[in-house]
Design a protein that fits this description.
70 residues; Ribosomal_uL29; ribosomal protein; Ribosomal_protein_uL29; mainly alpha
Length: 70
Amino acid sequence: MKTAKRLSDLKVMSVDLLQEELLKLKKEQFNLRFQRATGQLENTARVTEVRKDIARIKTLQRSKTAAVSA
């Protein structure tokens, strides 16, 4: 079972790695939504974890690109 990414782990990632992780999480989010729609989802809390991880990554990406351009 996958766990939520820690913020400290995400902070050390490069922008490219964050983008990779974001794509992976979006695919997982799609699969989770599909499982929920078909009634096959067992761990409903994972949907929330993935959504929050996506938000964390987007926030870090935005702050890293702002720091580079400033």
